[in-house]
C-alpha cells in the first residue's frame, strides 16, 4: 500500500506555497506515482479532513465556509475512495493541512481516527518548525493584518491562541506516540538547512517526491509599526472580512511603511521567559529526534538584542494628517467613516488630538 505523508505545517512555514505547487503539479505527480488528493481538499489544502476530525472528536461545529456545499463528515471516506481508485499506480500520498498543527483538545482521539482511516498504509508525519521568536512575531502580525482581524494585544494573543498552548516538543511527542518516532520527519524552517537552500526542493526530498520547480519567495510581508497599530484600531471598529484586502490597500496608501522585521511584541522580561523555554524545547527535540546538538543554526536572540514594538507618535501623527488629507480630497468615500473612527480611537489612546486644529478635528469627527 502507498506511503501516506501527512504534512501538518506548522503555520508560517510556506505551507500555502507548498500546497499551491502540489496542486499545480497534480497530473505530473500522479504520472510519477504520487497522489495529492483532490476530493478532500478545500482550496489547495486538505482542511476538510481536519474539520471532520474536530467535529467528530471535539464536538465543535466548524464554520460553513470550510465546507461550502460539501457534506460534513465524509472527507475521510472520500479520501479512501480516491486512494483506492489510484492504488495500483501510486506509491505515495501527500496530505497537507496546517490545521493539524494547532490541535490539542482530544488530539489523541483524533490521531486514533487518522490511524484507523489509513490502516495498512505506512504513515509519515512531515513538520516544518520555525524558530519560535520568529513564529510568535510573524503570527501575531499576520493575524492583525489578515481576515481574522485580531484587535487585541500580543499578550492576549499568545495566551489564548491554540497553537501557543503546547510547545513543539509536546506536540511532536503526541504525534510520535501515535505513529512512531522513526516516522517523524522534522525539518527546520531555515534556508541554510534546506536542500539547495530551497523549501520546495527540501519538501520534495522529505516526501520522496519528484523535484518540483519552486521560485519560492515570502510575499506575506508584515505590517509596519504604525500600520499594525492602525489596523488593530480598524479591527476594533469592525468591518466585513470580505473587505479586508481593500482596507489593507487603503491603509498602505495612507500610511506607507517598511515591514517590521525581528520585532518582539512583548516586554523583555516575558520574552526572556519565553526564550528560556524555547531553548530547552529545541535542545530536547534536537537530542531526541534529530540525534543532533541543535535544531536551529541561527540562535534565538538575547532579550538585549531584540527590538521592542513601540508606537512612534510622530509617525502616528503623520499618518493621521495624511489620512485626513486623502479622505478630505474625496478618495475612498465608502471607507471614510471606518478610517475616521479608527483614527479618532488611535489619537485618543495616544493623546495626540493636538495634531489637528479645531476645524479639522470637528470635520473628522463629523465623518464618524
Name its key features.
two-stranded parallel sheet; 16 helices; 368 residues; 7 strands; 5-stranded parallel β-sheet; alpha/beta
- Give the strand order, joined by hyphens, for the main sheet: 2-3-1-4-5
Overall pLDDT score? 94
- The radius of gyration over CA amounts to 23 Å
Structural class: alpha/beta
- Supply the CATH class of the largest domain: Alpha Beta
- At the third CATH level, what is the topology name of the largest domain? Rossmann fold
The appropriate CATH architecture of the largest domain is 3-Layer(aba) Sandwich
Number of domains: 2
Indicate the percent of residues in helices: 40-55%
User: Quick one: overall form?
Assistant: globular
Poorly predicted residue ranges: none
The N- and C-terminal alpha carbons lie at a distance of 63 Å
Topology as a string of helices (H) and strands (E): EHHEHHHEHEHHHEHHHEHEHHH
DSSP strand count: 7
Number of helices: 16
* Biggest beta sheet summary: 5 strands, parallel
Beta-strand portion reads 5-15%
Write up this protein.
This protein starts with a strand and ends with a helix. With 368 residues, it is α/β, with parallel strands linked by helices. The protein contains 16 helices and seven strands. The chain has two domains: 3-129 and 167-206, Rossmann fold, CATH 3.40.50; 225-258 and 311-367. The chain has a five-stranded parallel beta sheet with strand order 2-3-1-4-5. A two-stranded parallel ribbon has the order 6-7. Helix 3 crosses helix 6 (107-117), helix 6 runs parallel beside helix 9 and helix 11 packs across helix 15 (336-349). The chain has helices spanning 15-24, 26-31, 47-58, 64-67, 75-86, 107-117, 132-145, 154-160, 168-179, 199-206, 225-237, 244-254, 268-289, 313-328, 336-349, 358-367, and strands at residues 3-7, 34-35, 92-96, 122-129, 184-188, 263-264, 307-308. Helices cover 49% and strands 8% of the residues.
